[in-house]
Specification:
The protein has helices at about 1-15, 20-25, 70-85, 90-100, 105-120, 125-135, 140-155, 155-170, 175-185, 190-205, 210-220, 225-240, 245-260. It is mostly helical. Helix 5 runs parallel beside helix 7 (about 140-155).
């Protein structure tokens, strides 16, 4: 998902002049991600990383259990995961549907189908699978977060926030869901609360890439260009290889910020 987000925003930025980049970055701030991380999740153009953490649930491959139906379920599930990781989405869907023919209440298969339909932008189908998962397994934090992502993308911010909070109740250390709550505040125009949330994330994990990125966007929107440039710089330092294209875009954007501010920014 990170790669999809990076390509989207990188392509967008390359088509814009520096001034239009700045305006578009702010305009895209909480459009898809946030994708995740999120990781979730994002990318820039004053972009806000999209909602993050659409986790793929991958159980261990089991040995024969003596139950042919169960063995077939595990076989089809793991084959679905294999195809999904390869990007062979049609076959992944077929395998997960085969799982549900054998075990209609298989929460993991529903969750992964939700991830697939989210990536295909079929949000209603994704929501149906996630809603089924949380009804089957209210303690599955990934499903609450993922359902929150769908609500977020549909503009249902109150419902999104409620699901993210449920994920946090189940796992208070889930920083991805906390970032997503910050993005909800951002979308509701509560910029100061969004900043507070992102700062709370960094208190827990100084190297949290998406938090630095989103803080940079928030500070830039408020006109605090030096703070924005600092967090963009920390994003570049901490981002892993999956953000390689976005890092190049952010570097160019920092230069544009320095030009627009008369080269007064540090870094």
């Amino acid at each position: 998902m990170k790669q999809i987000i990076n390509k989207f925003y990188t392509r967008t930025l390359k088509e814009l002049t520096p001034e239009l980049q700045r305006k578009r970055l702010i305009g895209h701030a909480c459009a898809l991600l946030l994708f995740t991380v999120a990781l979730h999740l994002g990318s820039i153009s004053t972009v806000c990383a999209a909602p993050v953490n659409e986790a793929l649930v991958i159980p261990a491959v089991s040995s024969s259990s003596g139950n042919p139906s169960m063995d077939k379920t595990v076989y089809h599930f793991n084959l679905g995961v294999y195809y999904q990781k390869l990007g062979n989405i049609d076959n992944a869907i077929k395998e997960y549907e085969a799982v549900l023919m054998l075990d209609p209440e298989n929460a993991e298969a529903h969750n992964n189908l939700g991830v697939i339909f989210r990536e295909k932008n079929e949000l209603d189908k994704a929501a149906q699978h996630y809603q089924f998962v949380v009804s089957l397994n209210p303690g599955m934090e990934e499903a609450h977060n993922n359902l929150g992502v769908i609500y977020y993308l549909k503009g249902n911010y109150r419902e999104a926030g409620a699901e993210y909070r449920k994920a946090l109740e189940l796992n208070p250390g889930n920083l991805k869901s906390l970032i997503n709550i910050g993005l909800v505040y951002k979308s509701q125009g509560q910029t100061k609360k969004a900043i507070e949330v992102m700062e709370d994330v960094l208190t827990e994990d100084t190297f949290q890439t998406e938090a630095h990125y989103n803080l940079a966007i928030l500070y830039e929107e408020m006109g605090h260009q030096e703070m924005a440039a600092w967090h963009y710089t920390l994003f570049i330092r901490n981002a892993d290889s999956s953000y390689s294209e976005l890092k190049d875009v952010v570097k160019a954007h920092i230069k544009a910020l320095r030009v627009s501010s008369g080269s007064t920014l540090k870094g």
